[in-house]
């Protein structure tokens, strides 16, 4: 416990020092600092590790809610439409977090090198379809590696040599940790997650088109019934619900980027009916499209925090 507290304290200090400052990037490292809670914000999360050093966040995926705070980490294993918000943050105790983009190539390499050692700590769990999001307490070894990774922001001469090694170590700590089954699927070309991932990528690339579940099952190389079951296990929603969420989030980005023709935006993302688009948009985001876009532009102008990992 003492080591965890020491690592968290240094992680807080490092994030406070480096968040929001310009400088050379270190691998796929992400930092986040904010002094006030945020409203729920929809986004598409890519495979990512997020560690909280101070404060708390909430992530919603379909009907699943994931709360995680100081000393915990969250893993996203595949591109998912999620809603995230800062739950605990204040000027006295700002939210502080860091994250890392997860690499399928690094995970695959570690699995090949390690062999059975990468599975040894999880007996009896290999047959389950892992969820697309998972939360656990961060072990000391993972926190220590994250601290050393963030330190490199202040040591640009060391970063090109040490960052790839620490990145591999972080992936290894995840693979052999409590959420190893979820992380492992990212690097396995023939895993259920990778099969579902092919269908997910097709939906995202063709979100404006009509889809048939049987066609998606064919893309995933599964029967329709198996595909539906595994897709829901990973994403917490059906393929049609996933497509709808992607369409609405893409519409929100278009509106935020400057488009003021709500009907045209709805048509662009695949809606034939402007009224249906506005109705479903309001159901997801709480306000009509035009009103939401104006509010988001105002928030973007007033925002006083650094971008946040998941």
Can you tell me about this structure?
With 310 residues, the protein is α+β, with helices and mostly antiparallel strands. Helix content is 48%, strand content 18%. The strands form 2 sheets. It has a 5-stranded antiparallel beta sheet with strand order 1-8-3-6-9. The longest helix has 18 residues, at 239-256. 42% of the residues are buried.
Short description:
The protein has 310 residues and is an alpha+beta fold. Helices cover 48% and strands 18% of the residues.
SSE pattern: HEEEEEEEEHEHHHHHHHHHH
The secondary structure category is alpha+beta
The shape is globular
Distance between the termini: 26 Å
Low-confidence segments: 303-307
Residues in β-strands, percent: 15-25%
Give the % helix: 40-55%
Put simply, the count of helices is 12
Q: Mean pLDDT, rounded to whole units?
A: 87
Count the beta strands.
Answer: 9
For the largest sheet, list the strands in their spatial order.
Answer: 1-8-3-6-9
Rg = 20 Å
Largest sheet composition: 5 strands, antiparallel
Provide the descriptors you would attach to this structure in a database record.
alpha+beta; five-stranded antiparallel beta sheet; DNA-binding; Tscrpt_reg_HTH_AraC_N; transcription regulation
């Amino acid at each position: 416990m003492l080591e965890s507290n020491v690592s968290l304290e240094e992680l807080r200090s490092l994030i406070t020092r480096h968040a929001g400052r310009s400088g050379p990037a270190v691998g796929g490292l992400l930092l986040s600092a904010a002094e006030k809670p945020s409203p729920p914000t929809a986004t598409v999360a890519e495979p990512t590790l997020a560690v909280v050093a101070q404060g708390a966040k909430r992530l919603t995926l379909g009907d699943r809610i994931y709360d995680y705070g100081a000393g915990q980490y969250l893993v996203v294993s595949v591109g998912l439409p999620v809603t995230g918000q800062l739950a605990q943050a204040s000027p006295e105790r700002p939210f502080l977090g860091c994250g890392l983009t997860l690499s399928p190539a690094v995970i695959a390499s570690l699995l090949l090198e390690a062999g059975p050692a990468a599975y040894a700590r999880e007996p009896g769990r290999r047959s389950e379809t892992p969820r697309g999001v998972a939360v656990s307490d961060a072990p000391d070894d993972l926190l220590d590696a994250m601290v050393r990774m963030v330190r490199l922001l202040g040591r640009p001469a060391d970063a090109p040599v040490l960052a790839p090694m620490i990145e591999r170590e972080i992936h290894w700590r995840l693979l052999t940790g409590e959420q190893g089954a979820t992380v492992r699927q990212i690097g396995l070309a023939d895993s259920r997650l990778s099969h579902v991932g092919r269908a997910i990528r097709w939906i995202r690339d063709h979100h404006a088109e009509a889809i048939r579940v049987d066609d998606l099952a064919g893309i995933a190389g599964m029967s329709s019934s198996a595909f539906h079951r595994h897709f829901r296990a990973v994403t917490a929603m059906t393929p049609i619900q996933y497509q709808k969420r992607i369409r609405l989030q893409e519409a929100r980005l278009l509106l935020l980027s400057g488009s003021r023709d709500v009907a045209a935006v709805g048509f662009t993302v695949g809606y034939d009916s402007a009224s249906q688009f506005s109705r479903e948009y309001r159901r997801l985001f709480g306000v009509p499209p035009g009103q939401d876009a104006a509010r988001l532009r105002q928030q973007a102008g007033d925002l006083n925090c650094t971008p946040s990992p998941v």
